[in-house]
Design brief:
Blueprint: E1 9-12, E2 17-23, E3 29-34, E4 41-51, E5 57-61, E6 66-68, E7 79-83, E8 89-93, E9 100-102, E10 112-119, E11 127-130
Antiparallel strand pairs: 1-2, 2-3, 4-5, 4-7, 5-6, 7-8, 9-10, 10-11
């Protein structure tokens, strides 16, 4: 077994319940009950998109997965929906203004809001404003 992390699915066999691991507003893991259909996929944040050997496109995710041949529109910081049994990418959501986001680190960890705008600072940190 491997340790469970953010957005992982936990199944309890005896009670036939499915849960997703999310953060609460006090930066602790919280179990969120989900349906059987929702337990077949996981949301992963794309860290890097690059080309490998012989120009094969790859993308790496926050949980260490490497996806070959992602959608050409997928960029870093986007979210992809990955099917758990096969590891294939189903679809993606762009990291842009108007979408919902959950803060994954820092003092505001676990807060959810709409992305208002993104301040880009090349060579330093980027600041994303949520509402």
């Amino acid at each position: 077994f491997s340790p469970a992390g953010f957005m992982d699915v936990v199944q309890i066999e005896k009670t036939k319940e499915n849960f997703r691991l999310l953060y609460d507003t006090k930066a602790r893991f919280a179990l969120h009950k989900i349906s059987k259909e929702e337990s077949t996929y996981k949301l992963c944040r794309v860290r890097k998109v690059f080309r490998g050997l012989r120009g094969t496109p790859y993308c790496t995710t926050h949980d260490g997965r490497t996806l070959r041949y992602p959608d050409p529109e997928v960029r870093a910081y986007d979210t992809v929906r990955v099917e758990i049994p096969s590891g294939k990418m189903l679809d993606h959501v762009k990291f842009e203004a108007g979408n919902t986001a959950m803060i994954r680190g820092g003092n505001n960890m676990g807060r959810v809001g709409l992305i208002m705008h993104r301040e880009r600072h090349p060579g330093s940190f980027e600041i994303v404003h949520l509402k």
